[in-house]
Specification:
c-terminal domain of poly(a) binding protein, 5 helices, rod-shaped
Length: 114
Amino acid sequence: MRSVNHVASRRRRKKILKHAKGYWGRKKNVYTIAKNQVEKSWLYSYIGRKLKKRHFRRLWIQRINAGARQHGLTYSELIYQLKQKNIQLNRKVLADLAMNHPEVFAAVVQKATA
């Protein structure tokens, strides 16, 4: 008699079907179709995590540029002057200051251009 490990194979299938919960049509309950879709979804989420970083950096640069232009500078001029004065604020913090604390951002710009 052949020994088959039903426990492991069932657990493997159930794990995939659990990840496929909420999908439409046979993608949620037919194992082979669900497996393909779950693998594709994992690929999309991996790519999305990389794209998220790019998108946020672009957003921060736009916000810093808008704040800098209110003070008569461009984004690149501001970043250059910050580097020259050795003011180490990352783009995330600068964007937050430009959006939510314009008086503090103005002080940073003043310090950079002085």
